[in-house]
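RECORD TYPE: protein structure
NAME: Solute carrier organic anion transporter family member
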Amino acid sequence: CEKEPSSYMWIYILLGNMLRGIGETPITPLGISYLDDFAKEENVPVYVACLHTIAMMGPMFGFLLGSLCAKLYVDVGFVDSGSISITPQDSRWVGAWWLGFLIAGAASFLSAIPFCFLPKSLKKLGEAKKDKTSRYSPVIMPRIFQCQLVCPFLSDFYASLKKVLGNRMYFTFLCCSLLQFSGFIGFLTYKPKYMEQQYGQSTSKSNLLIGITSLPPVGLGMFLGGLIMKKYKMGIIGATKFSFTMSFLAYAISILHFFVGCDSYTVAGITVSYE
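PREDICTED:
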């Protein structure tokens, strides 16, 4: 058979996601360090909670946007909508998945413009005459780019990484975070497909339900956690106990998922024999 023509659009998607990741990665680590250096100590938990809450609002609006785009046919603008004989409920329907990339890309570009007007450094509150530079402060970034030799930077990075991973509390917290995000991402990834297959919902409605039910409680929990830490002025030990208690309750409630579900479809050759 003659080889079918293949599309190379996945290369553009790959490069686009790579650029997006490069641009988004510094916001969280440097943003938290920036808040920790230049905000009042008692206000830092609330500011960090706001940062994470806003970060959760993005996926929520992303699911809502995906729900809207999934209602539009993949070739919207290129074909007559009246000539399409299938509906979004049809398994052959393909939504305009590419439209969300254009809208989100334009929004990301516009939201990045204000970052160009931020100052290179700030004086810490109450210490206007005292220069305080943090290891992760944005002040160190020009020094990295001005350095012509890569080896000293890598050596310093290795020493810092070894010191950080040698902290038992941080390493334990890192392992817990990996478990939490692994479970959360798996849940968020396969839940829409599960709803489509088990309950006969369209892709558009599944994304809509996920966006308005799963993510807002997570963002609300992050914000409330920051308020609680500020109100009770928790230190490192108090915050650790608080985190352990909330994580334990979350895992205990998650066990209930084992008792909720639907019977599998009868599929010849998979769940039952062909006979």
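COMMENT: Residues 169 and 240 are 9 Å apart (CA to CA).
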